Structure to design on (284 residues):
């Protein structure tokens, strides 16, 4: 028996008696121990970048003055910086299905119905499509199944301007210099860069995906995983606690957990050069 309220994926338009769940448009099914069909999540994100630069004045010189004397960079100093990265998409690899809910009790499943299981199918009207969507996540689409996309990792670009600061001493007091040196000006620097790449695969549990190739399609095993947004009728379903907070992912090796709900990036940058106004020391 397939009881009313059972949620399945379809690789084509569902027949009468099945209601398309439009809330699944561009969404991924996620396991939970509570019911209610809650939605959440985003398709992109940003990070904040902050810190203090290393000491400056590593630039050999800032050109020359009117007398062709070399103007050296300011004395060692640091700057604080803070910025928000540009957004990046974190949609994992996916394959789309139409999600629909049974309005009545059924004794069989229709053609193009797709179910999940830890095991390969045993009846001839079912085809194992796991290998065709290996390591992909099922994603809802109200009209078009079979679309693929997504990536496993991403990076961010960023840019900003440091806080203002001065060098640690006044070059005008460098008595005995035979060249023109930059004065202790308040100044800032611009910076930009690209972070390292990071994996964004969410928490998952691996399962197989079966597709019904004809109607009627019978389930002769209790090992099929159904989805519900309300408490299912006993004794048809036992909720698998291993799916709590996890997304189903296609793989022929089933029952494996992986992924992460967080990630980080490394980054580095070199600021723009700043040459302050200068003062002639005339070797005094």
């Amino acid at each position: 028996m397939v009881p009313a309220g059972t949620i399945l994926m379809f690789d084509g338009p569902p027949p009468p008696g099945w209601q398309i769940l439009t809330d699944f448009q561009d969404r991924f099914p996620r396991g939970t121990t509570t019911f209610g069909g809650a939605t959440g999540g985003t398709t992109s994100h940003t990070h904040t970048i902050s810190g203090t630069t290393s000491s400056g004045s590593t630039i050999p010189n800032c050109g020359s003055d009117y007398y062709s004397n070399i103007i050296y960079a300011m004395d060692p100093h640091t700057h604080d910086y803070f910025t928000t990265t540009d957004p990046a998409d974190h949609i994992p690899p996916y394959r789309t299905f139409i999600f629909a809910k049974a309005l009545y009790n059924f004794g069989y499943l229709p053609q193009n119905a797709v179910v999940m299981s830890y095991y390969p199918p045993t009846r001839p009207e079912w085809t194992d499509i796991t290998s065709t969507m290996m390591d992909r996540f099922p994603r809802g689409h109200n009209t078009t199944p079979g679309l693929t996309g997504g990536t496993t990792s991403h990076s961010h670009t960023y840019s900003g301007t440091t806080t203002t600061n001065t060098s640690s001493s006044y070059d005008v007091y460098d008595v005995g210099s035979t060249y023109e040196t930059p004065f202790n000006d308040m100044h800032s620097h611009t910076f930009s860069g690209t972070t390292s790449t990071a994996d964004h695969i969410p928490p998952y549990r691996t399962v197989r995906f079966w597709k019904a190739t004809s109607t009627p399609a019978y389930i002769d095993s209790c090992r099929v995983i159904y989805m519900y947004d309300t408490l299912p009728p006993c004794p048809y379903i036992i909720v698998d606690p291993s799916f709590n907070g996890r997304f189903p992912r296609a793989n022929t090796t089933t029952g494996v957990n992986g992924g992460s709900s967080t990630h980080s990036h490394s980054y580095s940058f070199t600021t723009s050069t700043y040459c302050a106004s200068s003062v002639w020391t005339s070797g005094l």
User: Anything to note?
Assistant: The chain has no helices and 21 strands. The first strand starts at residue 7 and ends at 10.
